[in-house]
Amino acid sequence: xxxxxGGGRLLCPAVSAAxxxxxxxxxxxxxxxxxxxxxxxxxTDPEPFYTxxxxxxxxxxxxxxxxxxxxxxxxxxxxxxxxxxAFRNAGADCIPVxxxxxxxxxxxxxxxxxxxxxAADLPFEDESVDGVFASNLLEHAPDTAGIIGEIERVLKPGxxxxxxxxxxxxxxxxxxxxxxxxxxxxxxxxxxERRHGEPRKNTYGEGLFAVHIGPTLRLVRQFxxxxxxxxxPRYWPKLRFIVAIPGLREVATWNCVIRLRKR
Length: 263
Ligand SMILES: C[S@@+](CC[C@H](N)C(=O)[O-])C[C@H]1O[C@@H](n2cnc3c(N)ncnc32)[C@H](O)[C@@H]1O
What we know:
8 helices; seven-stranded mixed sheet; alpha/beta; Rossmann fold
């Protein structure tokens, strides 16, 4: 396993650069079981978990907005580039964007043609990209409004965006501090740090922020050129009714997906 550590705190786990056999494609309950098993090993062996997620996400986006072949897609908060690789395998022109060189180099060399930039201040022209993919970025960045504003700005009219994040009151909302985060963003991290010291990564207020579903949906609705097409729990999209129920959605969604279109 390759570990590349720089000065900063790492947000994503280190990954193996070795080529391996891909996990099989599963459906229904077998898929949930597979994801759960891979997630439980994610800290020590992240590649299979992210490979399955990337494969699923790209196949889904190809069905909805495809063909992705030839589309210019920005992968915001790309980390080492699992998703960028899957987009490129589908023939897309994918630009991985991340503001941390350490994260980009987590698997060895940073992904090709990456851009080192803040997702809330992108170096792209207005209306220049077909799709924006932002997986597990919002909870690690301090400026949700800035990121949504940039998504609105860079998308072409009719372009799509996929924004997913681990919302704060999800069982994994506090990341390594879970379940202390359930005490709230002030008390939870403070108590965790008193008892255990700083978390291994994702210190609250530096690499982790409390991002809730209700306020994020209200925020997104303030951007006039973005239309919310669909909101769903990432890992159990069939239980979409959950995201319509305030309160319940904050604890039962786990990871929230907002699908957007630029008007
Ligand atoms: C948890 S990782 C997600 C990686 C990948 N997208 C995934 O879903 O597996 C979060 C990534 O967002 C990056 N990030 C955090 N804040 C950012 C910002 N303001 N602009 C660009 N990237 C940012 C981090 O460096 C990190 O690589």
